[in-house]
């Protein structure tokens, strides 16, 4: 007997449409792009951490591979060093002061720009946003003169105040967008009940703004923690050096102990990585809530 197979009709509904194929191709492209970006970020971190486990000779001959013999002493020597913990404490003091002042003044200014209408408000916002175009290095000479006139050279405040000033534009922009997207009914109901601006700010706005507070706080903390040029110019005493200046200790006149430099960098970037992962959910919520008009 001969079996005659009957062709089954193709369900048109199950066939992918051109729009679905385009979306699938877009998703594949997006995933590939994200993998490439992640590799660009992660590979240098892994190479830095592995380089801290090598000897100087092996690091020069094999900068990217695994160590043939793991030199744990590179890390332990730094961890038990009092100089390392002094620099970490200096960095922490400067970063926490910068975060506190940036959050305080940035949130207050952004609240005024978001809810209080007055002449020139938009011009003031644009004035602060112009500061995003210029890093601190472009104004280091007038900054140094002003800090010197205030008597703050070689003090923590001589580093904190410029960092707060140059971080104010970003903080005001993020806070203002977030505050303006909060439900306007809250604002109207609070004022009907006799709530003033300050009470509304402290008791209603701030408790609802934890995501954006975490976002601005992490951005400010990381920026201060990694700052190099401002501490280099404003600080003279080695006892007040933050960790970016501590790298200079391992640089000699004729040679540099690169394996110790890489171990030092690995240990000092861990706090920022930990802080990011702990606040990752709030950072994403803060940025997305401030970007979409409700």
From TrEMBL:
Q: How does it sit in the membrane?
A: Multi-pass membrane protein
- Please report the stretch or stretches of sequence annotated as the ABC transmembrane type-1 domain: 88-279
Q: Where are the transmembrane segments?
A: 28-53, 92-116, 123-144, 156-175, 258-279
Q: Where in the cell is it found?
A: Cell membrane
GO BP term, example: transmembrane transport
Keyword Transmembrane helix belongs to the record: yes
- Kindly give the CDD domains that the UniProt entry links to this protein: TM_PBP2 (cd06261)
* Pfam families attached to this UniProt entry: BPD_transp_1
Q: Which GO terms describe its cellular component?
A: plasma membrane
Q: Which UniProt keywords apply?
A: Cell membrane, Membrane, Transmembrane, Transmembrane helix, Transport
Q: Which InterPro entries match?
A: MetI-like (IPR000515), MetI-like_sf (IPR035906)
SUPFAM superfamilies associated with the record:
MetI-like
Family, similarity comment? Belongs to the binding-protein-dependent transport system permease family.
Know the name of this protein? Putative sugar ABC transporter (Permease protein) exported protein
């Amino acid at each position: 007997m001969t079996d005659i197979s009957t062709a089954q009709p193709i369900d048109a509904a199950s066939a992918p449409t051109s729009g679905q194929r385009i979306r699938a191709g877009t998703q594949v492209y997006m995933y590939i792009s994200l993998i490439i970006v992640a590799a660009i970020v992660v590979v240098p971190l892994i190479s830095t951490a592995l380089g801290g486990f090598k000897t100087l000779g092996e690091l020069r001959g094999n900068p990217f591979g695994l160590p043939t013999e793991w030199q744990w002493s590179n890390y332990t020597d730094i961890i038990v060093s009092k100089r390392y913990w002094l620099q970490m404490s200096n960095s922490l003091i400067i970063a926490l002061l910068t975060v506190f002042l940036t959050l305080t003044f940035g949130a207050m200014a952004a609240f005024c720009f978001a809810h209080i209408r007055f002449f020139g408000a938009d011009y003031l916002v644009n004035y602060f946003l112009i500061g995003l175009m210029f890093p601190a290095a472009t104004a280091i000479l007038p900054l140094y003169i002003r800090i010197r006139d205030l008597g703050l050279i070689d003090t923590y405040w001589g580093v904190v105040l410029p960092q707060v000033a140059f971080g104010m534009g970003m903080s005001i922009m993020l806070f203002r967008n977030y505050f303006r997207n909060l439900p306007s009914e809250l604002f109207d109901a609070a004022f009907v009940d006799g709530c003033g601006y300050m009470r509304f700010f402290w008791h209603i706005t701030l408790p609802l703004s934890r995501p954006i507070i975490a976002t601005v706080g992490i951005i400010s903390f990381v920026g201060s923690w990694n700052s190099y040029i401002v501490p280099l110019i404003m600080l003279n005493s080695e006892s007040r050096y933050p960790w970016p200046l501590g790298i200079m200790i391992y640089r000699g006149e004729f040679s540099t102990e690169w394996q110790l430099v890489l171990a030092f960098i690995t240990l000092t970037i861990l706090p920022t990585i930990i802080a990011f992962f702990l606040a990752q959910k709030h950072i994403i919520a803060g940025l997305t809530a401030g970007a979409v008009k409700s």
